[in-house]
Amino acid sequence: MTIQKEVFLFFIVMFLIIVLVFFLVFQASGKSGGAQNVNRKRAIFFFIAFGTVLLVLGITLPKTPYRLFAAEEPTQKVFVVARQFSFAISKFPIANDDDFSMSAGVEITVQKDELIEFNVSSFDVSHGFSLYKDGVLKAQVQAMPGYVNRLRWKFSESGTYDILCLEYCGMAHAAMIAKINVE
Amino acid sequence: MNTFDKKSTLLWLLTVLVVFLVAIAFGLTMRMEQAEITEIGPLNFYILMTSHGLLMAGVWFVAGMAGIQFILSRYVEVPRWGSVFAYVCTVLGVVVLLISTLLAKFHAGWYFLYPLPFYAKGTEHGLLLFMIALTILGVGWLMWSLVMLASIL
Question: Would you identify the CATH topology of the domain A71-182?
Answer without folding.
Answer: Immunoglobulin-like (2.60.40)
